[in-house]
Amino acid sequence: DIQMTQSPSTLSASIGDRVTITCRASQSIGDWLAWYQQKPGTAPKLLVYKSSVLESGVPSRFRGSGSGTEFTLTILSLQPDDFGTYYCQQYEGYPWTFGQGTKVEVK
Amino acid sequence: QVQMIQSGPEVKKPGASVKVSCKVSGGTLSDLSMNWVRQSPGKGLEWMGGFDPENGGSFYAQKFRGRITMTEDTSTDTAYMELRSLSSDDTATYFCSTVRAPLRGDSYFDNWGQGTLVTVSS
User: Fold this and answer.
1) CA distance A71 to chain B (A)
2) Which residues of B fall within a CB distance of 8 Å from A100?
3) CA pair distance B108, A96, nearest whole angstrom
4) In sequence order, which ranges of A14-91 are alpha helices (DSSP H)?
5) Percent of chain B predicted with pLDDT > 90
């Protein structure tokens, strides 16, 4: 199975901060990577797919990048609605696997 | 806009089975590639399996094969996931979720049900 490792596990930030989350794959996955945001008690929400393509309706302050084994999700200017947990997911091969999550908290 | 509504929470004893339903509205189940993902505190998000459009049947993650069955009732646009031989490790929230376009490699989850909490306890 392809292992996905996110860092950091927890991130404390203030409104307006630039935030970067990293996701590493245990083997090359090309650009077959998605990012999700999840808030407590709700389902994950798709933000980015194919490493850098923003899902329709997602604010442009979210930026995805990377290929191969290293990927990043950047929030250019953190907003109150952005707090929650972020997950990466690879879909290069079965079984599709997720990172363990990065919780973005209020500083 | 496709929406999925799942069945309510379940409490099961070890060794029992659970069957979770996922009703589609605003779309037709046969047009979707329905999958199931679970989330537990210890293991995060896990893809369990889903509909494989290449062969027209269900495809399961290796760790669940032998005790999971996914079915679809297209007459009611409802998908089902049955998990057997439950243990405490199966305590989790189970989500139905659609994969956008698996035949062209777009195998990411674009739509989710609200989740169903399954608790396994003696």
Assistant:
1) 16
2) 44
3) 9
4) none
5) 82
